[in-house]
Structure formats: C-alpha cells, structure tokens
Amino acid sequence: MTGMTVNSELDLHHAASNCPNCSATVSGHFCHQCGQETVLHPPSAREFMHEFIGHYVAIEGKLWKSLGLLLFRPGRLTLEYIKGRRVPYVQPLRMYLTFSLIFFAVLKFSMHDVKLHGQERPQHGTPPAVAQAKKESGQDREKAAGEAAASPGAVHAGKTDMVLKEDNPGEVGDVARRVSEWVKPHNAHVADRITHFGDLPLEEKGALLEESFYHYAPYAIFFMMPFFALYLKMLYLGSGRRYGEHLLFALHTNAFAFLAMTVTVLVPEGFGLVTFLLWMWLAFYLPTAMRTVYGGSRKLTALRWLVLMFLHQLTIGLALLGAVVFGVLH
C-alpha cells in the first residue's frame, strides 16, 4: 500500500511526481498545468508572514504597484489591465471590494465615535451638557463628556438625532401608518412591517435605519457598478470599447473613490486644507481617468462626466433608499 501512494500526506517535504491539486504528472517544483508548488510541507507562522509581506505589503508587491497607479495616474491601471499586463497588480474586483468594505467600516466607527463624544461636533445633535462643556476648561470638559457617555439616555438621544429627527412628536409614525394603509391592499405583509416600524419608539426607529444602512448599503452600491458601466457604454458609443472594459474602469475608479473618501473620514479636525485637496482630487480624478482611457477633448469629456455623475448619483440615491427600506421591512 505504501509503495502505491506516491503523494502521501506523510511525504510532504519531498517533491511529488503528480500534482496534489490537479494530478498532472510533474517533474519540477511547480505544476505546469495549474502552477501549484510540488514540494509541500505544513506551513509555519513565519512562512505565512513572509508570504503576506512578500506578495501584498512589500515594495515590490502587487499592492504598492496598484496603489501607485490608482492614486497618482488616473486611468493608467485600467489601461494596463486592458493591454494584458495584469500579473503585477491586484485584481480589480478584489481592490474594489476591499476599499468599499474598509470605507463603510471606517464610516461606521467614526460615526459611533461622534455619538459617544458628541462634544466634538455639536451640529449633529450634541447633548446640551456636552455642548456646554466645550466652553469650559479642559478638565471640566472631559468630566462633562464622561458623564454624558455614562448616561445611556443621553448617548442614545444623540444617536437618534443623527439618524432620525422629528419636528413634531409622532410625525414619523403618522407617515408610516398612512403609507401602510396605502400599501395594505397590495401587500398585507409589507403593510404590517411598515406599521410595526411606525409603532417603534423614535430611538429604535433611528437604530433600525442605521443598522439597515450599514448592512445593506455596500451591497446596493456594488450592484450599481454594472449600471455605471452601462452609462459609460452609452456615453462612448462608437468607441470600440466592450462592456467588460467599461466595467473594469468602473471598478477601478470607484475603488479610488472609496479609498479617497476613507482618507477624508480619517483626516483629523484642523487639517481642513488636506480634506479640501482630497475632495478636489476626487472631483478631478474621474474626468482625468476618462481622458486617459477613452481619449477625447476636455470639453466633451467634461460634458460626459457631468452626465455620468448625474446618472450615477441618481442611481446610488435610489439604491441606498432601497437598501434602507429593504432592511426596515426585513
């Protein structure tokens, strides 16, 4: 039995005569069919770290090469991929998903920080005690903030004001009940969910809306990428570009947008110039990338950019609204 099993689990430190992955006959250190290593052994923690640093973090790794083109040469990464130079760079879908998830995670935690320390931004419904503390000395301010954070009611109230606010008590519930009455003849289950939402306390309404946004918004925006590519296809009819190329451009440019917005969220207060420059670069990035990939005059590119932004913002707005409604109803 041992003589028949060449690729035994007990023989991992020696070169295999058949690829453990696809069973192709091999003679070197790598399989010519699937590319997997043929000399295998249980990996150590050191090797895991070496592989991570070597492939993703090292200067010569894919991440830094991809970021260099993505950040400072708009559209160049898309052209590299279209021309077939793909191995040195991170795959576009992976890059988009990574930066989008990072953005929503940073946004969620930054908003959570604002709720717990509302004295930093009183325009978002800061509790009065904390707002007054801003005018006091440093020690008194920290004490007042600590008392506000220790009070569940104060923190929860600040949280509600940031998500949902009523000019008149009960108006959100009244609107929900009117919508429920209109929906009930068409779908009783949905009507019941709307009524249930309307009957919730204001704090719970706000928490549910916020939870729905952070849970479903990333999916909603991701599924809008094909529409972004479709708009590009329509705007560049006759360019000879296939739909897949437009989708590739959409993934790269939106990955940059998520990365840039993440940085703006992380920029500390007092660095307004940095934030301004980031937003300016974000505004000029897309038309610059469009000219790099598609060509065309500046005026025509600017016109296409305006149309693209209008359609994309409209689509994103509807998608986010749908995501929140879906979360509330489920």
Q: Which percent bin holds the helix content?
A: 55-70%
Q: How many strands appear in the DSSP assignment?
A: 0
- Helical/strand content category: mainly alpha
Enumerate how many helices there are, as a single number: 14
Low-pLDDT stretches are: 1-14, 119-162
| Alpha carbon gap, first and last residue | 57 Å
- Helix/strand order: HHHHHHHHHHHHHH
Could you tell me the mean pLDDT?
78
Radius of gyration: 27 Å
Shape: globular
Percentage beta strand? under 5%
Could you describe the 3D structure shown?
This protein is mainly alpha-helical. Among the domains are: 76-81 and 88-101 and 220-329, no CATH class; 118-207, no CATH class. It has 14 helices and no strands. Mean pLDDT is 78; it is low at 1-14 and 119-162.
What would you say about this model in short?
With 330 residues, the chain is mostly helical.
What is the fold's blueprint, element by element?
Elements: H1 45-57, H2 62-72, H3 76-82, H4 92-116, H5 128-133, H6 138-150, H7 152-163, H8 171-183, H9 188-199, H10 202-222, H11 225-235, H12 243-266, H13 272-294, H14 298-329
Helix pairs in contact: 4-12, 7-10, 8-9, 10-14, 11-12, 11-14, 12-13, 13-14
Key phrases:
330 residues, mainly alpha
